[in-house]
Design a protein that fits this description.
The protein has 165 residues and is an alpha+beta fold. The protein has five helices and six strands, in the order E-H-H-H-E-H-E-E-H-E-E. Strand 3 (94-99) and strand 4 (106-112) form a beta hairpin. The termini are close together. The relative contact order is 0.18.
Length: 165
């Protein structure tokens, strides 16, 4: 799918305010409401927009321990990766997981009530024999930056059209 400058303005607007009105979105995109709404629906159907979410401040609800965890698997067969990824996907406290190149296989972002709850989660992962060879834990002491708004305009070469993956 080719994205043009109007599509990028629509994406920027809806990720900043998922509750934006049709009229306000049309104004930000520089279109009349009906064509703007049709473009929005097209972006949703193409899977460019995958959902709308509220941004929650977890520490306003309860104390939270945020932990980053590096994981290296003992074996690197496709079945080993798939088994680990299925297990991770089923654990709500693991809020993000990235498969990475380099010295480790995965980086996980984990949010639990406290460090004891984190350790119980890790113990459970190890008990399940998912092939974890080693892991390193990094306790988040302060969030310096955590953006949910992506700089979509900078993904294109000087604002030119670009194919979406």
């Amino acid at each position: 799918m080719k994205l043009d400058a109007i599509d990028l303005r629509i994406l920027d607007a809806v990720q900043r305010d998922g509750r934006i009105t049709k009229l306000a979105l049309a104004e930000k995109a520089g279109l009349s409401p009906t064509p703007c709404w049709m473009r929005l629906r097209k972006l949703e159907k193409a899977g460019v927009i995958t959902g709308y979410h509220a941004r929650i401040a977890p520490r306003r609800i309860a104390p939270v321990a945020s932990v980053m965890m590096e994981v290296t698997l003992a074996n690197h067969r496709q079945a080993d990766f798939e088994r680990f990824e299925r297990a991770v996907a089923a654990i709500p406290e693991i809020v993000a997981c990235w498969s990475v190149g380099g010295g480790v296989d995965y980086i996980l972002k984990i949010m639990t009530a406290d460090i004891d709850a984190y350790q119980r989660l890790v113990d459970g992962l190890l008990d399940r024999e998912l092939g974890i060879d080693r892991y390193f834990t990094y306790i988040v002491t302060k969030t310096v930056k955590e953006e949910t708004v992506l700089p979509v305009a900078s993904f294109t070469a000087s604002g030119e059209d670009r194919s979406a993956s």
